[in-house]
Design a protein that fits this description.
There is one protein chain. The chain is an all-alpha fold. The two termini are about 40 Å apart. The chain is globular and about 75 Å long. The chain contains 16 helices and no strands. The chain folds into 2 domains: about 80 residues; about 210 residues, MetI-like (MetI-like fold).
Length: about 300
C-alpha cells in the first residue's frame, strides 16, 4: 500500500514539475517569440492578419534577405527596405550608429567599473583600516538608491560644471560613461565584496611571505581565482549600460548622433512608425544581451553562488 502511494506521489510530483516548467517557459518565451513574429512580417500583412502565429519562409526572406544591402548597396535595396523592418530600422532610423554608440559606452563602462571595483572590493574585504565597516555598509546603501534619485543631482552638477569650464559635457559619450558608474559601481562592489571572502586568505599570505607585493598578489592570485565573479560583474555591468535609458535621456537627448539604443528605440514608439519597426528595434536591443548571457552563463552561476555558503 505504501509503495503504491509513494509511486503515485512521485508521478504526481513529476507531472506538476513538468507542467510548471512548461508553464513558465511559455509565459517567458512567448512574448519574445511574438515580438520576433511581428518583426519579420510585413506591416501590411500584420494589419490584415494580426493573429497569425507563424511567419512564412517568404516573410523571413523578405526580412533578412536585404540585410547584405548594408555593406553592398544595389538599386533594389530601397524597394526591399519597405518590406524589411530590420533594414528600415538600421538604415532609415540610424540604428547602426546607435548600436556603435551603445557598444562604446557599454564596453568603456565595463572596463572602468572593473578598474575601480576590483581594488575597492579587495580593500574592503582584505585590508584593515578605519571606517571599513561603514564603507562596506555604505556600498549597500548606495546600491539601494534608485537612479532617479541620483539622476537630478548629477544633471545639475554637470550643467554647472559645463558652464564653469566652457566644455560641452552634455551630448558626450565619454561623459555618459562616467555617469553610468553611479549605477554600475555599487552593483560591482557589492557582488565582488561578497565573493572575495570565499578566496582562501592563506594563499595570499603565502605569496606575501614569498616576496610578492600586494599588487602582485592581486594580479597573480586573487584575479585568477575571482574570474567567475569578475565575469558575472562584467555581464551585469554591460547589461545595465546597454539598457540604461534615464541618464541617456538626460545627457544625450539633445545630440542625436550620440544617442544609444534605448533612445533610438524610444523614437520608434510613435503613431507614425509601423509597429513592426518597433518590434525589430526591440529585437536588436534584446538579442545581444541574450547571446552574452548564454555565453557567460557558466561564469555567472559560479560567481553568484560562490561564497553563498561557508565551509
Amino acid at each position: 500500500m505504501w509503495t503504491s502511494r509513494e509511486i503515485l506521489e512521485r508521478r504526481l510530483w513529476w507531472v506538476f514539475r513538468v507542467f510548471s516548467v512548461l508553464f513558465f517557459l511559455v509565459i517567458t518565451a512567448f512574448p519574445f517569440y511574438w515580438m520576433f513574429n511581428l518583426s519579420v512580417r510585413p506591416y501590411s500583412d500584420v494589419l490584415l492578419n494580426p493573429g497569425r502565429l507563424l511567419p512564412t519562409w517568404r516573410d523571413l526572406h523578405m526580412a533578412f534577405g536585404p540585410i547584405p544591402c548594408l555593406w553592398n548597396p544595389v538599386p533594389q535595396c530601397e524597394a526591399w527596405a519597405k518590406n524589411s523592418s530590420y533594414l528600415g530600422v538600421l538604415v532609415d532610423y540610424n540604428f547602426l550608429t546607435y548600436i556603435k554608440n551603445s557598444l562604446i559606452v557599454s564596453t568603456m563602462t565595463v572596463l572602468l567599473t572593473l578598474l575601480f571595483a576590483v581594488p575597492g572590493a579587495y580593500a574592503v574585504t582584505r585590508m584593515e583600516f578605519r571606517f571599513r565597516d561603514i564603507m562596506s555598509w555604505g556600498i549597500l546603501l548606495i546600491y539601494m538608491f534608485p537612479a532617479i534619485v541620483i539622476g537630478i543631482p548629477l544633471f545639475v552638477f554637470f550643467v554647472r560644471l559645463q558652464a564653469a569650464l566652457g566644455i560641452p559635457l552634455r551630448g558626450n559619450l565619454y561623459t555618459v560613461t562616467f555617469i553610468y558608474l553611479a549605477s554600475t559601481l555599487p552593483v560591482a562592489l557589492y557582488m565582488l565584496r561578497s565573493y572575495f571572502p570565499s578566496i582562501p586568505k592563506d594563499l595570499e599570505e603565502a605569496a606575501l611571505i614569498d616576496g610578492c607585493s600586494r599588487l602582485e598578489v592581486i594580479w597573480r592570485i586573487t584575479l585568477p581565482l575571482a574570474l567567475p565573479a569578475i565575469a558575472s560583474v562584467a555581464l551585469y555591468t554591460f547589461m545595465i549600460a546597454w539598457n540604461e535609458f534615464l541618464f541617456a535621456l538626460l545627457f544625450l537627448v539633445e545630440h542625436q548622433p550620440a544617442w544609444t539604443l534605448p533612445l533610438g528605440l524610444q523614437q520608434l514608439d510613435s503613431q507614425e512608425v509601423p509597429r513592426t519597426f518597433l518590434m525589430a528595434g526591440s529585437m536588436l536591443i534584446t538579442v545581444p544581451v541574450i547571446v552574452l548571457f548564454f555565453f557567460f552563463e557558466r561564469f555567472l552561476v559560479q560567481g553568484l553562488t560562490a561564497g553563498a555558503v561557508k565551509g
